[in-house]
Amino acid sequence: MSGYLLSLAIWTPIVAGLVVLFTGSDRNAPLARGLALLGAVLGLLVTLPLYTGFDKATSAMQFVEQASWIAPFNINYHLGVDGISMPFVILNAFITILVVLAGWKVIEQRVAQYNAAFLIMSGLLNGIFCALDGVLFYVFFEASLIPLYLIIGMWGGPNRVYAAIKFFLYTLMGSLLFLIALIYLFFQSGGSFSIQDWHQLPLDLTTQIWLFLAFLVAFAVKVPMWPVHTWLPDAHVEAPTGGSVVLAAIALKLGAYGFLRFSLPIAPDASHELSGLMIGLSLIAVIYIGFVALVQADMKKLVAYSSIAHMGFVTLGFFMLNPLGVEGALVQMISHGFVSGAMFLCIGVLYDRMHSRQIADYGGVVNTMPKFAAFFMLFSMANAGLPATSGFVGEFMVILGAVEYNFWVAFAAATTMIVGAAYTLWMYKRVVFGAVANSHVAELEDINAREFFFLAILALCVLGMGLYPLPFTEVMHASVNDLLQHVAQSKLQ
Amino acid sequence: MDMKSLYLLVPLAPLAGAIVAGLFCRVIPRWLAHTATILGVAVAFITSIVIFQDVLAGNSFNGTVYQWLASGEYKFEVGFLIDKLTVTMMLVVTSVSLMVHLYTIGYMQEDPGYNRFFSYISLFTFSMLMLVMSNNFMQLFFGWEAVGLVSYLLIGFWYTRPTAIFANMKAFLVNRVGDFGFILGIGLVLAHFGSLDYATVFAKAPELANKTINIWGSADWSLMTVACICLFIGAMGKSAQVPLHVWLPDSMEGPTPISALIHAATMVTAGIFMVARMSPLFELSDTALSFVLVIGATTALFMGFLGIIQNDIKRVVAYSTLSQLGYMTVALGASAYSVAIFHLMTHAFFKALLFLGAGSVIIGMHHDQDMRNMGGLRKYMPITWITSLIGSLALIGTPFFAGFYSKDSIIEAVALSNIAGAKYAYFAVMAGVFITAFYSFRMYFLVFHGEERFGKAHHDHHGDHEDEEPADDHHHGLAPGQKPHESPWVVTVPLIALAIPSVIIGYIAIEPMLFGDYFKGVIHVNEEAHPVMEALHHHFHGAVAMALHAVTTPVFWLAFSGVALSWFFYMKRPDIPAAIKARFSGIYTLLDNKYYFDKFNEVVFAGGARLLGRGLWKGGDVALIDGLLVNGSARLVGAIASVVRFFQSGYIYHYAFTMIIGVFVLLTLWFNRA
């Protein structure tokens, strides 16, 4: 059993999704919802042994599974996790439950298909984090686009088709170059698609730079980094709440994960060579996007832009290439999963009642929804990086790591403490505080038990991680140290 | 119980109270909310006394509670450092907090947010205790931001008032500017000392005294100077030093009990505490100390001027707080850290007293805060009157009162300091004495003496905020014919309890705190470079002698003339201030606009940020990236597609032929690969 944990993590939600799909039309919607929740909970349960059984001492891949898949091309069904990928498998399974709950009452059409799409996507995303074979990774990487594309295109807002296609083309453009890079590596390594083999492959600097750039295009779009970020606000605005949650909490992490799994270890010299460029782009994301977020009138767009700024911290942390930076960035990725997920759920709670995301349509929500206001306050503060919330930990580590790297990089990055607080609190003030703004706000009902449940769970995660982040970073140490040592060794002869 | 559990009990007891009152604020009755929180704070206070005695007996503690995080070779821990500085702060925080909790029962009794308010002030007490008890920079920053959060929540406590929710956001953001510097300072400490633990850092400080870092161009900067100035920027935000002071006057939008607790006695002094705690670092940089001195002196003098023209009773006290925080900062800059902490302590008591007294007046006036509507209140509110008089006398530095000993010591210390900027600072603190006496007694006379002006046509309650006031029953004022009344015992008892230390604490504490070995080993002064304390000690011949000698000094006569002038202006000839206001309208306008700091920030920073954001969004994202690149390439694809369409003939043999050629080309490439 324990030998197949990763397969279970991948295939449990996919099978559950297929089962849900077979419940068919909306007459069976309650059954579809129940089965989806069951599948999502099972999906989380099978990932828990990954944490409890994880060996923190080693940087080697754990829970490894290997079987031949397409023998002529030496393509394998090769799975394994280390301290970098394992947390994201669990996070993903956890978020899936929240997404099923968030759509419980809200999605009334094609319920089975909606839930199936999320479950299948959850499995595919786990596949990405577990894959150790280049082709397997690529297949999962691309396949995961399809459910998300469908979710935005079918259950999204009025402009959903434009957003879905923009999202699809943007990310597809990146992945084509990625595929070419994979095939090139296959030939260079003498016929291996094993990512771990590629890590050891000596490559000259020019080759490394070309590979790095090919990876960069693929991953930068996913993160998204400036200037290939403009698909994200559109996708978020049009996506249903669940879609936004998965997009922000998990899908954005894929690009960042790709940097750690491909760019840094395969092209270490190029990573050093181009780290200035990467840090520059990251700082632009942090500062430029922060100011753009400030002036958004649409809550979802504001949080979408804030996501880009937070992801800028992640790429910044990676390319300073010191432990504080890399671990801080990983912590930031997990925290951002909780916090941005919670922010989108909060906006969803409001949208379900008012059918508007415009800040100007709100005001004085606290008068009618005090419980909601308290949760939203907590998550807003986490978004602004307040200590004792998870949002602080990663930011703090990355800023401290940046001072070690270069004072002015830290100076630029730390401006987020001001700008991030400004856009988050200004939105909060206009939406929540004040006298009741209009008759719609006056009629709002506070959150129900279901909403209270998912917000409370996220609140516990945000506070727990903020007060005691050690368990999260403990599992990363060995893998991150190994990665940094590996990156420090030149592949040039 | 062993001492370590007692240390834990101090912050956790108020936290437990806050959780009870906060999580269940909608279900539990009021008595339970205030009992739970008061009990928590009382436990913290009593435990602090026990710890105080233990520390006096010569014990101290520096240890870890739990490891928060580890990364690379760095460890981040939550832990306590219990020494005399900590325990002094613990006593100040818990005692003032206890008084404020009690007072709140009376002050907030009609408020629907009663339970929530108690939860917040207990949460504040917890955060502040974590801040002062910390043994490392990380936890200090934790407490630092947590008190900022509670301050934010409390300034915006009346969340339907537009001015309140503007003020709380402003407070948070201005503090974030300070935190921005603070976190860079912490980063520099970590990067160069390899630890955030106080003891480790302070022990390593001397060997890094001459270390330089390359910050800008080719010039080398002293590490200590850069780090200390960064850290001090954090203190400037929290302790409201110019130019990051702008949030404090607006914070008066919050209910009065928190103005006393947070915005006078404790939170705003966190910056002072922080610099005193880091004396081993600041002592190594004269540049940083000069910077501290000049900023403090500027705050002390120029914020005092603003107190003169305020009509809102709370705002007078707020500007006096700003000015007194400037005094403390001046003391830090003069290397008289113990004097700064001494003034912090005396100020906590008499300023909390003044605020709570002002609050009592506000209750008596039915939530009218405009001093132009008051007058002659001494007849109706005798306890409030006497205790406020005591507070005012302490504030202006009347000999034998608490404020005299601390403020006079600051002035003496500055006079003895030889650091750059000390002359300016000396002038500022001397002039400040006169100004403080003048505005304090202007307030005192306007409120408690003279003609009874209440119950008549109202000036606007908030003086300078004419645009606000939705129908809100917190602010109605006295109806015509109605008389003010003395406040209930839950209000007056804290006043009396705070009046006692406002009189005697200076007399008791000056000798051990400043000249004994109370702070030995806690506050570090480089005696050779900054021999201020030694010289001060030389001039000191006991507390009584100091007070008697004071009558012959100019400081005393400056304060005296300030009181006399305000008596003449506001009791004898009320036409003179009006004439001066008309004659010097330019200066009045400058003061009334608070030197235009707010306007400048609003236009340049807030407006500039929005403009920049809109420019980047519309110009960058929408026009350049989406318009030109994304949609442009879509159009390009469209154009190519119209050419490609030509090849889609629909004849199978065309396709088959193309495929065969393609396969041959690929095979050729495959076999001829390198």
From TrEMBL, chain A:
Gene Ontology CC: endomembrane system; membrane
Keywords recorded for this protein, A-Z: Membrane, NAD, Translocase, Transmembrane, Transmembrane helix
Q: Quote the InterPro entries the UniProt record gives.
A: NADH4_N, NADH_Q_OxRdtase_chainM/4, NADH_UbQ_OxRdtase, ND/Mrp_TM
| Residues annotated as domain NADH:quinone oxidoreductase/Mrp antiporter transmembrane | 133-415
- Report the subcellular localization: Endomembrane system; Membrane
Biological process GO terms, please?
ATP synthesis coupled electron transport; electron transport coupled proton transport
Kindly give the membrane topology term recorded for this protein.
Multi-pass membrane protein
Instruction: Give the top-rank taxon of the lineage listed in the UniProt record for this protein.
Output: Bacteria
| Domain spans labelled NADH:ubiquinone oxidoreductase chain 4 N-terminal | 59-126
Annotated TM spans: 6-23, 35-54, 84-104, 111-129, 135-155, 167-187, 207-225, 245-264, 276-295, 302-321, 333-351, 372-393, 405-426, 452-470
Q: Which PANTHER family match?
A: NADH-UBIQUINONE OXIDOREDUCTASE CHAIN 4 (PTHR43507)
Family membership noted in the UniProt record: Belongs to the complex I subunit 4 family.
Question: What protein am I looking at?
Answer: Proton-translocating NADH-quinone oxidoreductase, chain M
Organism source for this protein? Azospira oryzae (strain ATCC BAA-33 / DSM 13638 / PS)
UniProtKB/TrEMBL annotation, chain B:
Q: Which UniProt keywords apply?
A: Membrane, Transmembrane, Transmembrane helix
Q: Does the keyword Transmembrane helix apply?
A: yes
UniProt membrane topology term: Multi-pass membrane protein
Question: PANTHER family under this entry?
Answer: NADH-UBIQUINONE OXIDOREDUCTASE CHAIN 5
One Pfam match, given by its short name, reads Proton_antipo_M
Q: Where in the cell is it found?
A: Endomembrane system; Membrane
Q: Does the keyword Nucleotide-binding apply?
A: no
UniProt organism field: Azospira oryzae
- Give the NADH-Ubiquinone oxidoreductase (complex I) chain 5 N-terminal domain ranges: 68-118
UniProt name for this protein: NADH dehydrogenase subunit L
- The ranges of region (Disordered) come to 457-484
Q: Which domain of life is it from?
A: Bacteria
Q: Which residues form the NADH:quinone oxidoreductase/Mrp antiporter transmembrane domain?
A: 134-418
Transmembrane residues, as ranges? 6-24, 31-52, 85-105, 117-134, 140-160, 172-193, 213-237, 258-276, 288-309, 316-334, 340-363, 383-404, 424-447, 489-510, 543-570, 652-671
